[in-house]
Write a structure and sequence with these properties.
The complex is a heterotrimer of chains A (130), B (297) and C (344).
Chain A: H1 14-27, H2 40-47, H3 51-63, E1 67-70, E2 74-77, H4 82-105, H5 110-129
Antiparallel strand pairs in A: 1-2
Helix pairs in contact in A: 1-3
Chain B: E1 6-17, E2 20-31, E3 35-39, H1 46-54, E4 61-66, H2 75-80, E5 81-84, H3 96-106, H4 112-122, H5 135-148, E6 153-157, H6 165-182, E7 185-190, H7 193-199, E8 202-207, E9 210-216, H8 217-223, E10 224-230, E11 241-248, E12 252-259, E13 269-271, H9 275-283, E14 294-295
Parallel strand pairs in B: 3-7, 3-8, 5-6, 6-7, 9-14
Antiparallel strand pairs in B: 1-2, 1-4, 8-9, 10-12, 10-13, 11-12
Helix pairs in contact in B: 4-5, 5-6
Chain C: H1 2-35, H2 41-44, H3 47-82, H4 84-88, H5 95-125, E1 132-133, E2 137-138, H6 145-148, H7 154-173, H8 176-202, E3 206-210, E4 217-222, E5 231-235, E6 243-250, E7 256-257, H9 283-299, E8 302-308, H10 313-342
Antiparallel strand pairs in C: 1-2, 3-8, 4-5, 6-7, 6-8
Helix pairs in contact in C: 1-3, 1-5, 3-5, 3-7, 3-8, 5-7, 5-10, 7-8, 7-10
Chain lengths: 130, 297, 344
Amino acid sequence: MIQFSLDSRSGVSPYLQVVQQVRHAMRLGLLREGDQLPTVKDVVANLAINPNTVLKAYRELERDGLVGARPGVGTFVTRTLTDSSLAAHEPLRRDLLRWLGKARRAGLDDESIEALFASTFRATAEQDIA
Amino acid sequence: MSTADSILSARGLGKRYRRRWALTDCTLDIPAGHVTGLVGPNGAGKTTLLNLAAGLLAPTTGTIEVCGGRPAAGPEQLAKVGYVAQDTPTYPGLSVRDHLEFGARLNPRWDAALARNRIDRLGLDPSQKAGRLSGGQRAQLALTLGLAKRPELLLLDEPLASLDPLARREFLQSLMEAVAEHGFSVVLSSHLVADLERVCDHLLVLVDSRVRVTGEVEELLASHRLLTGPRRDPASLPTGQRVVSASSTDVQSTLVVRTEGPILDPAWTVGALTLEDVVLAYLSPAEIGRPTLEVAR
Amino acid sequence: MIWLSWRQLRIQAAAAALGVAVAAIVLAVTGPRIAGLTGNIFDQLTQLDRWLYSAGIVVLAVTPVVLGAFLGAPLVAREVEGGTHRLAWTQSVTRGRWLATKLGLALTTAAVTMGVLALAVTWWADPLDAAQSETRGSLPSRITPVAFDMRGIVPVAYGVFAVALGVAVGAVVRRSLAAMAITLAVYVFVTVAVPIWVRPHLIPPVRQTVALGNDTLDGITMHGDGPNPPTTVTVHTANPADWVLSNQTLDPSGRAIDSLPSWFAQCLPPPPPVAAEKAGQGAASRNSLNACLQRLSDEGYRQQVIYQPASRFWSLQWAETGVFAVASGLLAWLTFWWVRRRLT
């Protein structure tokens, strides 16, 4: 059973963090089809957050078709996120290693690499939304 | 919001002690099925509001309705509302077990299994006298008494104030677990916003005996923005944007605004706010001269 | 609610029970001997007996105060001081029921405690009331102030009143210690004021005109020195156990006078004062006194006595109990009103 954590300073709302952590777990293969998500009661007992937050997160995941609720039993994963994208992981990882090598040879330190990546990532993310 | 969905509604509620008005002209609706945070500086009227809702006080003006009835109107009404007062009073001479007996005898809907379960899980010694418990343990005992009563609405007056961080976290975990399991409404007051941010999905800000803002936490966070830019007269903003607080230097203005749509003026740098920032904006004196009620929906 | 009230009360109730048990045992042990005394009872009393008699009076006087201060005053005040009223009033019982149960239990405890004590002391002291001795003094009659409060059913009324007073004061003042002090002060005032101002008039007292004679003479008092000091005379009624309220000499025209006519001073033997007249004085002085008294009578001087006859003991007891019951009821009503309307 996976466990959630909450970063209260990330600026991301709690319910979104839950959604993201579920998707992340699914991508990494920690949650497979048929696995049960932690009950609302267990999540709030662990994190001390509002149950409605967890319910909202689970509902959104349900809307996206990733999970399904079985009344009286719990919420279960109905799909996996790994199959479509997992195949692409290996080549992408190799590309990333190559890029990182280039960046280090150009003289960037760890912080600059992270900053470059973060700003580019955010810019493209906002472009996608707008 | 119709009063049918409200677990607590007040119209023109006011309470006066001798010459001072502790609450002035409060009109509010707190929705059922939510955890509502009641925030405000000391002396704002939070305890007074909770006491009025619990039936410990009678209003001077206006009306208040809780769970569809007048507070403390009779045994059935009293059974619907649970209350944990500030500094969690318990009978020092009675043991933990005696307190549970007390609850069982004085409450028809007492859930003895829930109470015993909680006491066991919390690791409290049933024969220990309540006067010898630590602050955190007493708070948990008081919470147990409030929860085992199986109320529709649980009122908590600054329950975290005298607790250390671990005790605070455990208290909130306990409370949220109970809400998840039994689905009752909670109104919880604090003067620390950080405590409330995790657990509350609805907020009510009281300043100076009046309601300054009330609404869903998500909605408040989404609709409030921090604007910084060259010095401008706050009144010059378009009508869709209400200025909540403003401060300026000779060259720069910093405003907290509440807005329906996106900020399009390129002169402003727009930033998001934490819940604490939003509340603080409402706690500062209204420089715009509009100390009025902001109601979300 | 009864469970809670009892749980909060049980230490005080236990203490009261213990005290009553001790008193009852002591009295039960010494009582039968007293009951068996005949003849001149007073002279046969030992030092212990007299001490026990006084102790009986003291215990019955003090117990209501203790009950009022330690049972009554903290009943509401302690809860408000500790904030536990906010716990008690937010369960599922109304304030009225909460108060009614606590008050009822406290008053019942007080009534039972005082009832048992009063019964025990009355039974023990009954043979001794108004025991007179020619030479060594006497014990007070049961209808007179000190003994009256300690006999029959009045002590129960006092105990209930003290607790009702304590609870009311506690509810208004909201501080245990202050409430105890105020309850004490008010209770003492009431128990001193009632015998002086209220009890004599509960049943209109009897007025009787008594002739001045040797058989009715109680005492003659000279106020001051000098050749012709003012002199007053007191008489007793037919039953020495009556409670005499006032003694006034009336002149022939029926007016009350402050002092006997000046010639009377000559009737009195020279010092030592007449009030301590012993049987050892000569027959001559007694004859002269008789002659003077006769002369007073002939001239038309009479004594007016206002008194409560000893036979009215039980009527007065019921009347006073009624007064205190009404007072207790008013205090209880005040407490209810205060707790339900005014207290936060």
